Amino acid sequence: MSKKLINAIADMKEKEAVSIVEEMVKNGSSPMAILDAVREAMDIVGRRYEKGIYFLPELILAGEMMKKINGIIKPEMEAAAPKGGRGKILMGTIKGDIHNIGKDIVTFMLEAHGFEVLDLGVDVPFEKFTEAIRDFKPNVVGLSGFLTLAFDAMKETITAIKNAGLRDNVKIMIGGGQIDEKVKTYTAADAFGKDAMAAVTLAKNWIGG
Question: What is the pTM of this model?
Fold first, then answer.
């Protein structure tokens, strides 16, 4: 069943993917098994995009499928999560970068694990991050960026958060295709994650639960 779900998502068969997830939930499949299948499918979608097989419409459709699947399994995940939620996380793709697939996967996984996530979208200026930190009061801020140009924008965003007097209030994690330990040090982030599950692990370690 998981293989069918992977193929349905990767091949852009939205109705089939939703139907499979509904059947898996009905039959008692673990939400984590469904999440693993979704993650594997999105990896395929990402590779097809990089090879020029898929384009923006396919990425948007994949994102819509993730949202629908998240809506189906979220009650199951929330039932297993600590009461009151695990904490707040602010997500966004930094200024100058419009890639959203990685951010959407991380957001999907965090919400599925019981975190309250505010997603600011893509091409987000640092002013919007600082405003959202004041209003939303997150425990963790996640900065996404796929392009190498994202490194400077991440550094500028974290510097702006510090200059606004908000740096001590939040942990900051960064992620994206080219992110590594050197970039983490350059941007002054607290940590980086190689994939969505790494982001979930970081959030759990920082917030608890």
Answer: 0.72
